[in-house]
């Protein structure tokens, strides 16, 4: 669970996660979510926070009004692992239920 992904696994995982891409400046994955309004953005963050704490795996994120910019990596592994893919997948499900802007 906490070894860095092979290039092949990483490509396949990203292909299944719309909007997620390799971070520009480090070994991580990132996405900018845009919600309908601040309420939806903060509701998303609140729900994700509960999942993150449960998994003991936490996003780096930055919120401005209705956007939430997220970066995920596994610090101990120095890169992207299945733990990041699992959290990104959970974030997709939560975002879909939270009021994403079309
Ligand atoms: C001690 C604790 O398990 C670690 O610091 C956890 C906490 N949350 C974490 N979150 C993320 N994204 N990466 C980590 O490596 C990480 N490590």
What does this structure look like?
The protein has 102 residues and is of the alpha+beta class. The chain has one domain: Transcriptional coactivator/pterin dehydratase (Gyrase A, domain 2, 2-Layer Sandwich), CATH 3.30.1360. It contains 3 helices and 4 strands. It has a 4-stranded antiparallel sheet, covered by helices on one side. The longest helix has 18 residues. The site of ligand H2B has 7 residues, from loops.
Which whole number gives the mean pLDDT?
95
CATH architecture annotation name: 2-Layer Sandwich
Strand percentage: 15-25%
Q: Order of helices and strands, N to C?
A: HEEHEEH
**Would you tell me which CATH topology applies?**
Gyrase A, domain 2
Number of strands: 4
**Rg value:** 13 Å
Present as ligands are:
ligand H2B
Task: Name some characteristics of this structure.
102 residues, alpha+beta, Gyrase A, domain 2, 4-stranded antiparallel beta sheet, 3 helices, 4 strands, 41% helix, binds the ligand C[C@H](O)[C@H](O)[C@H]1CNC2=NC(N)=NC(=O)C2=N1
What's the short version?
The protein has 102 residues and is an alpha+beta fold. It contains three helices and four strands.
């Amino acid at each position: 669970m906490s070894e860095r992904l092979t290039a092949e696994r990483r490509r396949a995982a990203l292909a299944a996660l719309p909007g997620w891409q390799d971070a520009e400046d480090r070994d991580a994955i990132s996405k900018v979510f845009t919600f309908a309004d601040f309420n939806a953005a903060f509701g998303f963050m609140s729900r994700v926070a509960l999942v993150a704490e449960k998994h003991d795996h936490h996003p780096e994120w930055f919120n401005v009004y209705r956007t939430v910019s997220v970066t995920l990596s596994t610090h101990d592994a120095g890169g992207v692992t299945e733990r990041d893919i699992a959290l990104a997948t959970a974030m997709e499900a939560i975002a879909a239920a939270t009021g994403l802007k079309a």
